[in-house]
DNA sequence: CAAACTACCTGACTGC
DNA sequence: TGCAGTCAGGTAGTTT
C-alpha cells in the first residue's frame, strides 16, 4: 500500500530510468485509470505523444513528471491509489494482469522501453496537468509532507491544536500534512505513545512536536528500507518489493505482544478500516 | 465552516 | 465445490 516512502522510491526510480526519455506511443487499456483527465483517454494519449519527460517530482503520495517545452509547463500527474505500480519494462515483457496504461519510451540513446501503470483496484490513475510543472493545480490543496525541506512544523501543530478531531484522523488529513496513510499513522502514534482518538486541541505542543518527529523518523526508516510491502501489490519502479513490514510495531499485529510492554496489540474499527495500538502504552482518552 | 460519512474498485480469504 | 460476505484503504465528493 503505497504511502510516502513507497512513492518516493518510485519517484527516484523514475528519475533514474525515465527522465530524458521521449514518449512515442500511449495505450490506455482501462478508461478508469485516466478518469481524472477530463478530456478523455484519446486526448490524453494524443497530448503525450512526442513529449519528453524532463523531471520526476513528488508531494505526499502524488507524483508528477514535468514535460519538455517550458512555455506549456505541463506534467503527467500520477497517484498510485491503493494498488498502483509504475514499472519500467522491456517492450518484450509480457503484459501484467492489471496493466492499465502503457507509455512506450525512447531514451536518448534510441533504446525502447515501456513505462507501465499497473493497478488492480483502480483507485489510482494518470492525468495531464496543463500548467502543473512546478506544482499541479489539481494538488495545490495537498499540504507539504514531513520530508519536504519547507515543511512548516509550527503551522501543522497550530492546525492540529485548533481542531477537535482525533489526532489519527488529523494525521491522515492530506490538507494538514501529506504522505501519511493508515500504516505509518499507527506506527508513529505507537512510537509517540499517543492514542489516535485523542483530540488535537487537547494535546500539548511539546507532545505534538515529538509525534511529528516520530512521523518523520518512521517515514525515513521506511524509505531507507525501500518502502513497505504486504501483499506484493506494491513494487517499486523496477518491480522490487520493499520489506519494511518486518519492522512494524503496531500495524497488523493484533494480539501480538507490544514490543515495549508485552500487552497484546488491539485492533479497532476506524473510518471503514482498522487501527492498531497498544492499550497500555497508548492510553485511550475518556469517552 | 468544520467534521464526518460514502462511493469507488478487485481479489484474497472466511464461514456455511 | 460454490457462494455470499468481509476486508484491504486514499481521495473526492456529499451530507450533517
Label this structure with key terms:
287 residues; alpha+beta; 4-stranded antiparallel beta sheet; Helicase, Ruva Protein, domain 3; single chain; 10 strands; DNA-binding; N-terminal domain of MutM-like DNA repair proteins; elongated
SSE diagram, text form:
Layout lengths: L3 H14 L4 E7 L12 H8 L8 E3 L2 E5 L8 E5 L4 E7 L8 E8 L5 E8 L5 E5 L23 H9 L5 H5 L10 H11 L12 H20 L41 E5 L2 E5 L10
Helix pairs in contact: 1-6, 3-6, 5-6
The structure holds a DNA duplex (16 and 16 nucleotides).
Word description of this protein:
The protein is an alpha+beta fold and 287 residues long. The chain folds into two domains: 4-139, Alpha-Beta Barrel (N-terminal domain of MutM-like DNA repair proteins); 153-246, Helicase, Ruva Protein, domain 3 (Orthogonal Bundle), CATH 1.10.8. It has helices at residues 4-17, 41-48, 153-161, 167-171, 182-192, 205-224; strands at 22-28, 57-59, 62-66, 75-79, 84-90, 99-106, 112-119, 125-129, 266-270, 273-277. Strands 1-6-7-5 form a four-stranded antiparallel β-sheet. Strands 2-3-4-8 form a four-stranded antiparallel β-sheet, covered by helices on one side. Strand 3 (62-66) and strand 4 form a beta hairpin. Helix 1 crosses helix 6. The longest helix is centred in the last third of the chain and has 20 residues, at 205-224. The chain is elongated and about 60 Å long. The model has no long low-confidence stretch (mean pLDDT 90). It binds a DNA duplex (16 and 16 nucleotides) through residues 1-3, 32, 61, 79-83, 98, 119-124, 163-165, 169, 172, 174, 181-182, 230-231, 233, 271-274.
